[in-house]
Amino acid sequence: MITVVNYQSATLLSPQRSSSGSSHSPRSSSSQPYLSISVTEPVKLGNGVQAYISYRVITKTNFPEYQGPEKIVIRRYSDFVWLRDRLFEKYKGVFIPPLPEKSTVEKFRFSAEFIELRRQALDIFVNRIASHHELQQSEDLRTFLQADEETMERLRSQETGIFKKKPADLMQIFKEMQTRVSDVVLGKEKPVEESNPEYEKLKNYIFELENHLSEAQKHAYRLVKRHKELGQSLSDFGKAAKLLGACEGHALGKAFSDLGTKSETLSVRLQKEAHQLLMNFEEPLKDYVRAVQSIKATIAERANAFRHQCELAETIKLKEINLDKLMLTRSDKVGEAELEYKELKAESEEATRRFENIVRVMNEEIVRFQDQKTQDMGIAFHQFAKGQSRLANNIADAWRSLLPKLEACLS
Amino acid sequence: MMGSENLDSEEAHMYASREEMENLVLDEPSNNNNGTKSFSDYRSAMSSLADTHHPLSSPMAEPADSDPLLTPPPFRDFRNPNVATDNSSYIEPPSYSDVIFSPFDENAVNEINGVDSPGRSSDSSGFLSKSTSSSSDYVKITVSNPQKEQETSNSLVPGGNTYVTYLITTRTNIPGHNGSEFSVRRRFKDVVTLSDRLAESYRGFFIPPRPDKNVVESQVMQKQEFVEQRRVALEKYLRRLAGHPVIRKSDELKVFLQVQGKLPLPTSTDVASRMLDGAVKLPKQLFGESVAVAPHEVVQPAKGGRDLLRIFKELKQSMANDWGGSKPPVVEEDKEFLKKKERMHDLEQQLSNASQQAESLVKAQQDMGETMGELGLAFIKLTKFENEEAIFNSQRARAADMKNVATAAVKASRFYRELNAQTVKHLDTLHEYLGLMLSVHGAFSDRSSALLTVQTLISELSSLHLRAEKLEAASSKIFGGDRSRIRKIEELKETIRVTEDAKHVATGEYERIKENNRNELERLGRERRADFLNMLKGFVLNQVECVWIDIRPSLVVVSAYRVGISWVTIKARTAVVIESQEAVRFAEVEEQLIPFQLESHYTRKEAEMLEADFKNLQIGVRHDVEGVEKEHMLTKQDEVLVAGVRGMRWDAVELPFQFRENLDGHCNALWRYAARYYIYEGDMPFYEEDR
């Protein structure tokens, strides 16, 4: 019914987007269904620990399910968290796009850089959902994009309480916890684990990938820092050169102060480049670290489903034996037992179906993930190379422009 | 001898293993200069060892004959584009004459060659004050070949007392030396003696500071490391002395550099005997009436122990000056000098500030390079992982891309390292001048101590006069006079005369020092200007070059390099093929060109241009290979000189040409670096295999 909005382009970290954020216009003609969202205008509200940032979330769409072509709502970070959690509950097996992490340190500072980084990440998050062929039809997404602030607030506070969950769910949680604990206690002896070699390989891949990516991200972050540091020391050096120039005679002093000025301009460039690097290279890498973590959550979900299915299968076996026994003894409990057995059977079938669904969805998702990763990484690398060469050219140009002056001084 | 040989080969081994390590880490042949350099270190060390029996040999004095690999031709055209357009310069072995265009260029080229290589730093240091030494007369000093020797005297335990001597080789064309080239062996103690002598004879001059004794370091540091460090420091020091317009002509330096055997300069008496000397003198000075200071002594600053009384007196005088009780008869009247002194002080502060900042800049640059390298390595790992685990083709495509970026990052980190090494070299001028400031202080304090001597003598003179007057007045009252008094007056008069003499000498010395100070200040200003400008230019040029070859070009270089390597193998194969009379498979050449087309980080126009170039290149390669066939049959000989560049396969030289002919203009850089990689890396395995 709905063709997927070219999700690749929707999730591109195009530099224009990251710089302005608001310049998000519907790019397809009205005949083509589109859903495009932008997160803009972060505003700091509240004080101290209570402080939070609110964003303007602008939706532009021609989906018939939506109220109109354009809708603007105010959302805060925890609303995004709510959306993520809901989707995670409902769309088992789908790799839910990752959210930027909650930072306790930044909470008290909310530096401009942090706010911008988070805004960008949220923008990417919500657009990824909007471009996902399944997730985009989610009711929760519609709620998130259209509900007024009070409704949202109510939904959010409901969600965060446990009472929303059914008692059965609670029991399930408790059981899971138990098995998890016993897993830990018993060490290796995990009662039920999928032993599909292909899946093992995939799991392994994801875990390794996380390590590699986070290492790369760490270095990238340090590189950003180094850029800043180099900028700082260049500017200090420039100042020192200027002072030294002031001690010297005319031509030499001029040369020194020229050098100083150039150093200072370059330092500004370096700082800018550091910012660009942070936005366009480090952040995408980090984004993928998070994405891999979200995949890990899905993997855990799958393990749970599998375990549930196995447990049910086991119980059914017991019940079956029990039923056979009862049949033999012609107990009057047979009818009751049979009913129970049937119920269980239905439940088990349901669990199996759920598990199989997860497996199917995951297989699709992996392909999508790899595609998208390839795409996004390519852009990040391109940005990196471009930024570096731009910087290098700038530096070279700046210094080169100084050469004739020095030549003049020397002769 | 044996010891030092072991030491050298060990060092070379150390370098080699480090090089290996780097190669391992980077997972591909590295282009770092260390590789070739350690080799050269080793070789030069070996040759110097082989030559030691010949006193006149100067193992490092002929860089022109060094391996052409060590003077990377691609860098030369940076300095002077004219050379680049001249193709023949690549075939000719690089001779030094066309590398040296000006003193600055010489420095720069050597700095590029000799990054961090003490063995080859023969020209890179000592550029201070080079600007003033006219090119017509020169003194070139090399310190080399450290040797361990036994202390002959008072060593109770054999082997317990050893010291190191250094071979100091001088080449000069200044008349007054015997011969134009000579060498002596000296130990560090001799250098101390030299500097002490110079400090005494050349008061008021800005004498370059002597390297520290580093007593602690000599114990703590690795022996060979310490010796090497000291060797470099000594070389620097001696070169600076030779660069000083006055000191270079001094007898002390001449004797030091020329006279064989033990240093004939009087070693300054050691402290113990000096104390003894002073103590013997002391009672005489205290009790005897002849308080006069001998004229020849006043030209020297009061030294501990030798003439304690003079020290007491001068101390008193300085106290009197400080407390302002009596105005000293001679004050520092040179206002201009005071102003200059003030400025020097300012300059020193700014210098130390600037040198500190320079240091932190270098540190930041280094960090940047390191982080870049680490990032590159992380990506290489990631790439490897992705490749191994790849399930989809898209992953593999991206992995190739990623690898490019990773390699580029590693390359960039190398460039940063190179840049850094050169930045250090350039900004070192700041440190050198900071060190020189110490000697400026020394010269100024020479001046003030001379002034103090003069002041002391004058006030002493006046007090003597007073006493003489008193005595005369007293004796005139008593008619006929008192014989003893008259004798006393005569004695006093004698003393006054001697003191007067001393005062004249001291004043003369003071004036001389003043004059020296002024001249030296002027000289320093002049030289500083030139040196600083050179420094700035070098620094800037450096930044331009090194940074410019950053990521983007190196993305090309990566591929160019890859292609280059494969070409070398193809060449090798063609050689074999020709022998077995088989046809050459061009498909392989084309295959090797594919990586170029995969470069996705280019704008369309760039890509198109590149593609067109490579089409031409392909055609060129065809011709080339055909040419190779013919040529190969003709030049199948080991006559390396025919090939032009010594020690290299001629076709390895030919290849960059092919590159160049086809990729003119905008692809110049590509060619340059491809050529560079050829010469550094591509050729080596080929060459080895060929043997």
Automatic annotation (TrEMBL), chain B:
Gene Ontology MF, one: phosphatidylinositol binding
Q: Does the keyword Lyase apply?
A: no
> Can you say where in the cell this protein is located?
Cytoplasm; Endosome membrane; Golgi apparatus, trans-Golgi network membrane; Prevacuolar compartment membrane
Chain intervals for the UniProt region annotation (Disordered): 1-90, 111-133
Q: Does the keyword Protein transport apply?
A: yes
Record's compositionally biased regions (Basic and acidic residues) = 10-21
Gene Ontology biological-process entries: protein maturation; protein transport; seedling development
Q: Which Gene3D superfamilies match?
A: Arfaptin homology (AH) domain/BAR domain, Phox-like domain
User: Which Pfam families is this protein grouped with?
Assistant: PX (PF00787), Vps5 (PF09325)
Task: Supply the alphabetized keyword list.
Answer: Coiled coil, Cytoplasm, Endosome, Golgi apparatus, Membrane, Phosphoprotein, Protein transport, Transport
The way this protein sits in the membrane is described as: Peripheral membrane protein
Q: Which CDD domains match?
A: BAR_SNX, PX_SNX_like
Q: Which segments constitute the PX domain?
A: 144-263
Tell me the SUPFAM superfamilies matching this sequence.
Answer: PX domain
Give the UniProt entry's GO cellular component terms.
cytosol; Golgi apparatus; multivesicular body membrane; retromer complex
Q: Which residues form the signal peptide?
A: none
This protein's name: PX domain-containing protein
State the species of origin. Answer: Hevea brasiliensis
